[in-house]
Design brief:
Elements: E1 3-6, E2 9-12, E3 19-20, H1 62-74, H2 83-89, E4 97-101, H3 107-116, E5 121-126, H4 129-141, E6 147-151, E7 153-154, E8 161-169, E9 172-173, E10 179-180, E11 195-204, H5 206-212, E12 220-223, H6 229-234, H7 237-243, E13 246-250, H8 253-256, H9 263-272, E14 276-281, E15 284-288, E16 297-301
Parallel strand pairs: 4-5, 4-12, 5-6, 7-11, 12-13
Antiparallel strand pairs: 1-2, 3-15, 8-9, 8-10, 8-11, 13-16, 14-15, 14-16
Helix pairs in contact: 1-2, 1-3
């Protein structure tokens, strides 16, 4: 098993590959990126330290900054907030353009908008119009004009009329488990719910959506769309080939299965575009080669 050298110390790697330091500032679209790696000696990788790329300061809404600060503090401490949320936001540079696909109630969107600052842009994309309406109110309340909610169902093809299935438990919607019916052979794990509500949708692709909204730069993308991640990637050829962003994808076999896909399909597709995969382990992103039953969020970046 190799060991990985990081400026400031030596850290072990349980997978035999290198971690990404949590303070590293990632710019995936340029050879001048702070994410360049160079071998210091056999079995080690030298990573740029946090001091190499200082984060420039800029005016940001006090409300937005305060909300993001609370969420960052809660991220590793509250079970209702994913640990990876604050860690992914650490990789967002000022002025970055971020996409939050499956934005939900705006956890990642808020963190992205605060990290990217007033000169950045965050598109909070969700297929549930009730959630995008709430996101719009959130953006107004936080005084975050750079946070842009978008109602859209992102898939492999555009123009397909379909529905979003929103499950209910005890007469309450479980929005986090809503999924698009297009391409789904069955309800999968959502069979546990007594009923659902259907919302009419028309699909789009990520390539088409970003073009429509004048997105010419993409730095970080988070995706959580309950098993439709592979289909979404099939409609993101330009984003993958030209923008080369950092991605964080939720990958769960149980949700992918209802669309006839496997976790390995997602990993292989990303690998075919030159991406390496990482998961948050301990206190760092560590490279891995397969999806584990104990983790569902995976980071992909160009090594």
């Amino acid at each position: 098993m190799g060991r990985v050298r990081q400026r400031g110390g030596i850290v072990g790697d349980t997978h035999g590959r290198g971690p990404i330091d949590r303070a590293e500032r990632m710019r995936p679209d340029s050879a001048n990126s702070a994410t360049r790696w160079s071998g210091a000696e056999p079995g080690t990788i030298t990573l740029p330290g946090s001091g190499d790329q200082p984060r420039p300061s800029g005016p940001c809404s006090t409300r937005l900054s305060a909300a993001a600060g609370v969420l960052s503090w809660l991220s590793p401490r509250a079970s209702c907030i994913e640990t990876e949320a604050a860690q992914l936001a650490e990789l967002v540079n000022p002025g970055a353009v971020c996409l939050d696909i499956g934005a939900g109630y705006g956890l990642y969107s808020t963190l992205f908008a605060a990290a990217a600052g007033p000169h950045g842009r965050t598109l909070a994309i969700d297929a549930n119009p009730r959630l995008t309406n709430r996101l719009q109110r959130l953006a107004t309340a936080l005084r975050a004009p750079s946070l842009q909610p978008i109602w859209a169902a992102v898939s492999s093809t555009s123009g397909v009329d379909t529905q979003l299935s929103v499950p209910y438990r005890h007469r309450m919607p479980v929005c986090g488990r809503a999924f698009m019916l297009h391409g789904a052979a069955h309800h999968g794990p959502n069979s546990e719910f007594d009923r659902d509500r259907r919302i009419n949708l028309t699909t789009t692709t990520l390539d088409e959506l970003t073009e429509q909204h004048g997105v010419n730069q993409i730095d970080v993308i988070k995706v959580d769309i309950e098993g439709a991640e592979y289909a979404m990637l099939r409609g993101a050829h330009t984003v993958l080939a030209r923008h080369r962003p950092v991605w964080m994808l939720e990958i769960e076999e149980r949700h992918l299965a209802k669309y006839g896909h496997r976790a390995a399909d997602v990993v292989d597709l990303m690998a075919s575009h030159g991406y390496a995969m990482y998961r948050w382990h301990g206190d760092q992103w560590q490279r891995c080669s397969h999806v584990s039953p104990t983790a569902r969020n995976y980071l992909f970046r160009i090594p």
